[in-house]
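Hi everyone, sorry if this is the wrong subforum. Our group has a chain we'd like a structural model of before ordering constructs, and none of us has done structure prediction before. Sequence below.
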Amino acid sequence: MSEQTLSSSSSSQLFINNLQQSLDLCSKGVENGDFRKSEASISELVESISSISDAAISAVDDEETLINSITVLSYIHSYLSNPTLDQAVIDALSFELPKAIAKFSGVSQRCSELVENIIDLFITKCSPRDMISVFSEALDSYGKTTDAPGYVATFLLGVSKVFLNIQRRHFEQMKVAIPIVLNALKAASFDLDDSDVGLEILFKGAIAIADSIQATCKKLEGEASAKLRNLLGLYVLQVIAVVSISMGNRESICLSFVVHLSSFVPYCGLLYANLIIGHGIDLLVSHVCDGDTDDYIDCFSYVKHGAVLSVIWGHISDEVSQAARQDVHILKDELRSTQSSRWSAVGLIKCVFNLGNLPWNLKKHALEFLLGITENIDQQETSEDTKCSLHTLSVTSTLQVAITLLIMTAPNAELRKMAFAALKSVLADIPASSRLDMMQALIRSSYSASMTAILIDCVRENLRNDYPKLKEAKICTSNSFWNAGILDLVELVLRPPSGGPPSLPEQSDAVLSALNLYRYVLITESTGKTNYTGVISRSNLQKAYNEWLLPLRNVVTAMISETKKDGEQLGFDIMCGLNPVEFVLYRCIELVEDSIKQSI
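Answer:
Right subforum, don't worry. Here is the predicted structure as tokens:
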């Protein structure tokens, strides 16, 4: 026998002797009613077990620590399996031992199996109420006292089994445990890489809990069953969001989880048509969380994200929509034909774009869905305009997120192109009488010169499309961009509310777009012998000349002169940005001077 084998055997025997001594002391303390003594012996036992698990976790490839781990777990399992063991001793051990042995779950497959067997013994022999409390406390300790691999998955599976053993007050007991389960699931899944096998085990445990809740629902009737179904609905939507964030990059693997989770959707009475517009979600939360604190409600913080993502996954895969017993094609047709519902959907989809840790491939699918319900929509000849104010805030917020997605964060040109197309489609869906106001609001709240420039270019495109229709009297000015609001928009950039000319070179993109917009409007109105915007009115020409263009010329001239003196690379870059501004600015000045002369 080798020295290493002898050493390992000796070490394992030492651990077994210590375990046996602590367990005997615990047993005697319980039998004698000396609870202080039993608690002290359990503390020593837990400390001894923790030292072994810590060593095993820190050196997973070390054969000796692995042997020690398996030996200790096997002994504990054998001890608890003894039919003559006093129930009071098992109850005493159940409060601390599960947390200690669960840390071995990530050491090896054999250790994981032994841990599960030990947990199953506690579930079989102890009160469900007590075990829910023990497992909840264990899950709540994740990230505080332990972050051992496999730890959370062990207790998720344990909770799923305990739920099936509950005999009464099912909703109340599950309701207490679910927030802790969800918080631990979120924390543990966000700690793991999307390629980690432990992530799959984690979500298998989470889905096992959903299976157990559904199985319990089917045994109940009336209000008791309805309340538990509501809880299951919220739980499923939250888990869909978490699994999408954690594993969305691995669509094929993530899909299998989402298909299973989507099978609960019809059982909970959830419909894609309601989920995508957020209908009933707040009511569902209020039914489950009635009278609860904000801390409790926070555990469902991703429910609306999950509602949208459940539909997006249905858009991605027919397998998902079939599991949910929904038809995405019919849903899209309904949204395309009903503007108020479409706007509500647009307003809710923003939460997906705004979810920073959601994988980009899922945001891309969300953009596809958004384009599918907004592109080439015929403007309805109804009183929908009157409803615009009800949705303005949500739509505006969605547009801001879409622009941010487009300019600031999209990782490739394809996504930027899709986001821009979605932006234009959503804007086109807003009634013309409100669209310009909407875009002005977006420009005012824009924090990027590039985003401002893109919005102004969208305005110019609308003007170009509207002008022929306006000339042919196919539309009236109230339903067109050709009104005095255009000059207000130009002034917003060329003479900011903060005062003075715009800051250059920081605002070069926005200034160039505003100048091009002004030039286009001035040329179009002059050659077309119209004055819809008031741009060729003498007072407006003089205002533009004296308050916008000349002050801007002074700034541009001074900056170019100063930059030429520097002659460095930075100066060259600034010049590249200022040259087109200078060119268009002088063209605008010439046009205004000519127009003023003609108005005399």
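For your construct planning: The chain is about 75% helix and 0% strand. The CA atoms of residues 437 and 485 lie 8 Å apart.
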